[in-house]
Amino acid sequence: MAQGKATVVEYMGERLTLAQLSERCGVSAATLRSRIAVYGQTIEQAVATPIRRKSTYGGRPPANVPRPVPKLKRHPSGRAYSRWRMMGKINERYFGKHGGAEANTAYRKFSQDWIEGKYDQMAGSGMKAGGGLSVAILAERWMEHVRGYYTKDGLPTTEVKTCLAAARLVNEELGMTLAADFTPAALRECRTKLVGYGHSRTTVNSYVNRVVRMFAWGAGQSLVPAAVHSALKLVESLKPGRSPAPDRPKKQPATNQQIEATIPFLAPADPVRNTKLTAMVKLQRLTGMRPGEVCALELGDLDRSADVWRYEVGKANKNRHRGKRQAYYFGPKAVEILRPFLEGDPSGPIFDEGPNNYSHAVLRASVRAGVTRWSPHQLRHALATEVAEQFRSLGHAAAAIGDSEAVASAVYVHVDPRERMKIEIARKMG
Questions:
Q1: At what angle do helices 29-37 and 18-25 cross, to 10 degrees?
Q2: Start and end of every Tyr recombinase domain (predicted)?
Q3: In-domain check, residue 83
Q4: Residues 132 and 235 in one domain
Q5: Residue 86: its H or E element
Q6: Is residue 430 domain-resident?
Q7: Do 170 and 297 lie in a common domain?
Q8: C-alpha span between 20 and 213 (Å, rounded)
Q9: For residue 53, is it within any domain?
Q10: How far apart are CA 324 and CA 319, in angstroms?
C-alpha cells in the first residue's frame, strides 16, 4: 500500500499516510511502520496498542533541562562523595572526610559549578564554553592509554594503580580546568594537597612526575599545547630536608639474626611448606633474586651443564620490556639448597608459591618471631650490601643482583664500599 515514497494505509474508511495517522493517534510513524511491517499487526491493532514504558523513572534526562545536583553521600571508607551518570559513564567526586568542614566546603563549590553548568559543558567532547579539553577528560583518555600500555603477559602492572592515583588527584582538585590552562601553580596546588595527606617526599614526587607525564602524553597526542608540558617540567622536585613532606627511613637489609629467628615460624603447621619457604629464603639470600623471580623459577630456566648453575629469568624479568636480559648464578651452596626440589623433573614453577603468598608468609613469620618486620625483598638488599663491603666495589654489588651501579648505590647498598679503605688509611696515617 505504498504511494510514492509515503506509506498510505486505510483507517476507518480513510486513506492516510503514516505521518497523518501518527498525528491522529499519538503513536510515532516509525512505531506504526514497525508494528505493521515487522510484527504483522493490523492497522487497528497498531493504533490501539498503547506504548509500553519500560520505567517511569530513569532513562535519559530531558534535553535542555537543568539536572539536580548529585547528592552528598558517605563512602564506606568514611569519605564524602557524589556519584552521577553522564554520557553513559559513572562519575565520582570525592570531597574529604564525611561531615568535616573541608568536605562541606568542597561540596558547596562542586554544587555551584554544577548549577553554573560547568559539568554539562564538559560532557561528550570534554569541551568547556571557552573551548579546549578539560583536565578530567585528558586524565580519562590518558588512563585508557595506561591500561593498554602497562601490561605484562596480558596482566596490568603495578604502574597502572600508581598512575590512577595521580590521575584521581588532579581530577578531584582541578578536573574542570581546561588542560591548556593547567599551570605550574596548579601543579604545585595538587602537590600541596598530597603533602597535606601525609605522603612521604618520594611518593609526592612520584605522583607529580606522573601528572607531568600525563600532559606529555597529551601533548604528543595533540590534545594539549606542548608549551603546557614544557612549563610543568620546570616545577622543581621536593628536596630532602627542604620540604614539609617527611622522608621515610630507607629500607634496611634483612640481618642474619632476623632470618634465622624467622625461619622456624614459616608455616609452622605445615612442615612441607615450611621446608619449601625456608629453601626460598636461603636461596634468595645467596643469589639476591627478587621475590617474583625466585617464585617463577622453573626447571627449564636452569642451565646445569657446569658446576655453577645459571638461571635465565623468563616472564618474571622486570626489565624485559626494555630488552634487557636477567640471569643469576648458583654456586655450590645454592645448588645444594635447590637440588632436592628438582627430583622427578617438576613442571611449572619449582616452588609453586605466588609472590604475594610468599611475602605475606615471611612478614607474618617475622612478627611471630618477635623480630623487626622484614620482607623477602630485603634479602636482595642484604646480598648487595655484603658484596659491596667484601669486594669494595659497587660494580660487584650491581653484578650480583643484576642491576645498574646507580640503582645499586641508591637503593640496595647500605655501606660505602670505600669505608674499609678509609679505616685502613686512618689506621696507618691518622
A1: 110
A2: 249-425
A3: yes
A4: yes
A5: strand 79-86
A6: no
A7: no
A8: 59
A9: no
A10: 6
Name the percent of the chain in helix, strand, coil, to the closest 5. Answer: 50, 10, 35
pLDDT, tens only, 78-125: 888 888 877 666 777 778 788 988 888 889 988 888 887 766 655 544
26 grid coordinates:
499519538
Closest CA to 160 of 170, 171, 150: 150
pLDDT digits (tens, 9 = 90+) for 53-62: 554 445 565 6
Does one domain contain both 270 and 353?
A: yes
Domain containing 13: what range?
Answer: 2-48
| Tally of helices (H runs) and strands (E runs) in the chain | 19, 11
Please enumerate in sequence order all residues whose Cβ is within 8 A of that of 323, keeping only pairs 6 or more positions apart, or say none.
Answer: none
Q: Identify the pLDDT of residue 180.
A: 87
Q: Which residues contact 60 (CB under 8 A, 6 or more apart)?
A: none
Q: Does the residue 179 lie in any domain?
A: yes
Residues 27 and 92 in one domain: no
pLDDT in tens, 140-173: 899 999 999 998 877 888 899 999 989 988 888 7
CB 191 within 8 A of CB 174: no
Residue (of 309, 293, 312, 290) closest to 301 by Cα position = 312
Q: How far is CA 199 from CA 196, 259, 362, in A?
A: 8, 30, 26
The alpha-helical segments, DSSP class H, found in 315-375 are 332-338, 355-369
Q: Which residues pair with 6 in a beta bridge?
A: 3
Using the CB atoms, write b or e for 284-321: b if 16+ within 10 Å.
bbbbbbbbbbbbbbbeebbeeeeeebebebeebbbeee
Which contiguous run of DSSP H or E holds residue 85? Answer: strand 79-86
Instruction: State the alpha helices, DSSP H only, in 116-197.
Output: 118-122, 135-149, 158-174, 184-196
The structural domain count of the chain equals 4
Cα separation, 46 vs 51, whole angstroms: 10
Residue 182, C-alpha cell as written in the block: 593547567
Give the mean pLDDT of the chain: 82
CA dihedral 392→393→398→404, nearest 10 degrees, is 150
